[in-house]
Write a structure and sequence with these properties.
The complex is a heterodimer of chains A (83) and B (269).
Chain A lengths: L2 H4 L8 H21 L4 H13 L9 E7 L4 E7 L4
Chain B lengths: L2 E6 L7 H14 L4 E5 L7 H4 L10 H5 L5 H4 L1 E2 L6 E4 L12 H14 L2 E5 L6 H8 L3 E6 L3 H17 L1 H4 L6 E9 L1 H5 L6 H8 L3 E6 L2 H9 L10 H13 L16 H6 L2
Parallel strand pairs in B: 1-5, 1-6, 2-4, 2-5, 6-7, 7-8
Antiparallel strand pairs in B: 3-4
Helix pairs in contact in B: 1-12
Classes of the chains: A alpha+beta (83), B alpha/beta (269).
Chain lengths: 83, 269
């Protein structure tokens, strides 16, 4: 802590808080992938193929997530279509 | 029955072997008969950290393959009579380890020892999976650095799904977080993940915090586990870590920036 810190020389986020935010996102993502059923990547490829029969989209324009909701699982499919 | 503890991390260079050497020496000095096994087949290094590199005759793989019996391969530590080292092979490849072979050796050791410390190789491949497979508990060594934290989470996932306990629906492997190379000055400046940040992300109970310390390199230079350097901060932090492993409740130390006293400010140091 120096006198410059007190007078707010810089308001940029510190690198540690950037690190924490990035880690939270990637760790949550990788945990979901780890706990997902094995068919999920294949399902994602098939859905992508079906959509591409009609609209050309990139692979990252399709996100699928399987969320456990206690009694049942909810498959969430997000597709970004080009304008 | 011995307690089998794996020291693991995913990422390399974070302090697994330093920790294996310190923890096994600490347990042995506390009166528990302990053996520490180097699972890093092809890249053995525990021997040089423990100062017994010139005493290796037979190794872990020799015993698995029946070329030697266990007692021929075990090296008795010269500083503590309760401590034995089982070195890794320097010439074979990691596929020389089989589940059956590892189990056979762990079963034999279980009859004679209270603690079996498994020093895992880096990575998440076969060698690392063999090191953790039969573990009762795990010390996950993590640096306050994004790649290390991420890899620790990967290895936690493997402990929870691919260990013997997980595959056989037994009580899960007990997880412990050990943070190494911690520097409170940089945390204070917002340049390093804090203990709370890492605990928050990994959600594993904290076993210990080892400060960034010159004592660690000095210890490996001379082949004395750093826990024997009782005056050093890292040595004391490892001693606390072993105490907690044995069930003592000890406050975490070396987490705050050391305030310099007036004399130190004037005369340096």
């Amino acid at each position: 802590m120096s006198i410059f810190d007190i007078f707010g020389k810089d308001k940029e986020p510190k690198s540690a808080s950037i690190a924490k935010e990035r880690l939270k996102v990637i760790v949550a993502h990788e945990r979901r992938a780890r706990n997902a059923p094995e068919y999920l990547p294949a399902l994602q490829r098939d859905i992508l193929d079906v959509i591409r029969k009609y609209v050309q989209i990139d692979q990252d324009q399709l996100q699928i997530d399987l969320n456990d909701d206690g009694n049942c699982s909810i498959l969430e499919v997000n597709v970004n279509l080009p304008k | 029955m011995a307690t089998i503890i794996v020291v693991t991390s995913g990422k390399g260079g974070v302090g697994k072997t330093t920790t294996s050497a310190a923890v096994s020496m600490g347990l042995a000095m506390a009166g528990h008969k302990t053996v520490v096994i180097d699972f890093d087949i092809g890249l053995r290094n525990l021997d040089i950290i423990m100062n017994c590199e010139r005493r290796v005759v037979f190794d872990f793989v020799n015993v698995i393959q029946g070329d030697a019996v266990l007692n021929q391969a075990l090296i008795k530590d010269k500083r503590c009579e309760n401590l034995y080292i089982l070195p890794a092979s320097q010439t074979r490849d990691k596929d020389a380890l089989t589940k059956e072979g590892v189990k056979n050796i762990l079963d034999q050791l279980s009859a004679d020892f209270e603690y079996i410390i498994c020093d895992s190789p880096a990575g998440i491949e076969h060698g690392a999976q063999m090191a953790l497979y039969f573990a009762d508990s795990a010390i996950v060594v993590t640096n306050p650095e994004v790649s290390s934290v991420r890899d620790s989470d990967r290895i936690l996932g493997i402990l929870q799904s691919k260990s013997y306990r997980a595959e056989n629906n037994q009580a899960p492997v007990k997880e412990h977080l050990l943070i190494t190379r911690f520097d409170p000055v940089r945390v204070d400046r917002g340049e390093m993940l804090s203990i709370a940040d890492i605990e928050d992300i990994l959600a594993v109970p904290l076993l210990g915090v080892i400060p960034e310390s010159q004592a660690v390199l000095n210890a490996s230079n001379s082949g004395n586990p750093v826990i024997l350097d009782e005056k050093s901060d890292a040595g004391q932090a490892y001693k606390d870590t072993v105490g907690r492993l044995l069930g003592e409740e000890l406050p975490h130390r070396f987490l705050e920036v050391q305030k310099k006293g007036l004399l130190k400010r004037v005369f340096g140091g």
